């Protein structure tokens, strides 16, 4: 009988323990695909309470529930979410851009080509990015578009006086003019009579014309290519900035009312930000071990995160006393039955 009653009490105690235990949080949460664009560690309040601020930038179509808000361990301490704010703003997105331009030039001289090119140009992409690009001087190249040949006529004249006869063999068939060889084209003769003693002598003068041609191969034009590089920006993309502030739960102190108010002022979001989550005022505070003098002055026991364990311990003690009482009552009953039988 005693064993059955003891088992019943133990079973009841187990049910009480199960009922007093807090439900376990789901450990398998969906992994977040958002990463902070800025992480800052700082302290707040008179007691230098540790804080970590994480900033996330999302588009209007992104779901903010993917931002991690679970507790995490950093610097050997556990941090929990204290506040989350939201701010809508216009973002500026930049990206590098290289634009190649092609133009015609009548000369292949690089110095002359650079004079024809603008040092900067304004570029705009199809998806709305604009910006100023600068000329990359090392990228400038000139290629010949084609060639043509030009022919130019050359002519020269020579005079050969005092010839003994009007004989073409006495006239040179070619001459050099400007480094070019010209050929005999025509000869005109003239004569004169001179007296040499008692004899009359006829002298001839040849006026020879020489002609030739020179051919030049030249480029018909040049195709110039040059690269302009830089960054372009798009300023009409709307983004949403979320700021999550995490506080430490392992710090060995409980902030006073004044300290909490000061910390709240430091963590107050700037104008234009909307608070979408804030830790309730009656939420478990960061644990601090108060001094004996402060505890005596307060006249009360400070709350700790182990309150549930204390409750369970009290319940277990009551159950143990109840079991001991029942066992004692059974023993007295057995003694009375023995005396009666004797």
Tell me about this structure:
- With 342 residues, this protein is α+β, with helices and mostly antiparallel strands.
- It is 23% helix and 48% strand.
- It contains 5 helices and 10 strands, in the order αββββαβββββαβαα.
- It has helices at 2-20, 110-116, 257-266, 292-298, 307-341, and strands at 38-44, 49-59, 72-74, 77-105, 120-124, 130-163, 174-177, 180-196, 199-248, 274-278.
- Strands 1, 2, 3, 4, 5, 6, 7, 8, 9 and 10 form a 10-stranded antiparallel sheet that branches.
- Helix 1 packs antiparallel against helix 5 (307-341).
- The chain is rod-shaped.
- The protein starts with a helix and ends with a helix.
């Amino acid at each position: 009988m005693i064993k059955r009653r003891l088992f019943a009490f133990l079973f009841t105690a187990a049910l009480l323990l199960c009922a007093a235990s807090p439900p376990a949080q789901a450990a398998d949460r969906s992994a977040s695909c958002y990463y902070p664009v800025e992480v800052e560690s700082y302290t707040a309040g008179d007691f230098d309470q540790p804080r970590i601020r994480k900033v996330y930038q999302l588009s209007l179509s992104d779901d903010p529930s993917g931002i991690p808000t679970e507790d995490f361990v950093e610097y050997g301490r556990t941090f929990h979410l204290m506040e989350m704010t939201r701010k809508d703003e216009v973002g500026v997105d930049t990206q590098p851009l290289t634009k190649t331009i092609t133009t015609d030039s009548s000369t292949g001289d690089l110095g002359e080509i650079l004079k024809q090119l603008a040092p900067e140009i304004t570029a705009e992409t199809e998806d709305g990015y604009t910006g100023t690009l600068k000329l990359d001087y090392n990228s400038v190249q000139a290629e010949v578009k084609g060639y043509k040949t030009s022919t130019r006529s050359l002519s020269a004249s020579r005079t050969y006086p005092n010839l003994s006869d009007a004989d073409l063999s006495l006239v040179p068939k070619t001459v050099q003019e400007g480094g070019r060889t010209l050929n005999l084209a025509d000869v005109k003769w003239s004569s004169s009579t001179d007296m040499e003693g008692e004899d009359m002598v006829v002298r001839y003068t040849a006026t020879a014309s020489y002609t030739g041609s020179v051919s030049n191969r030249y480029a018909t034009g040049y195709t110039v290519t040059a690269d302009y590089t830089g960054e372009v920006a798009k300023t009409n993309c709307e983004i949403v900035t979320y700021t999550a502030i995490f506080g430490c739960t392992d710090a060995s102190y409980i902030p006073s009312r004044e300290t909490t108010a000061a910390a709240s002022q430091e963590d107050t979001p700037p104008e234009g930000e909307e608070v979408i989550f804030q830790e309730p005022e009656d939420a478990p505070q960061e644990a601090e071990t108060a001094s004996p003098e402060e505890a005596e002055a307060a006249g009360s026991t400070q709350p700790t995160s182990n309150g549930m364990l204390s409750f369970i311990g009290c319940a277990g003690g009551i159950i143990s006393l109840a079991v001991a009482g029942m066992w004692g009552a059974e023993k007295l009953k057995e003694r009375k039955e023995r005396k009666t039988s004797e």
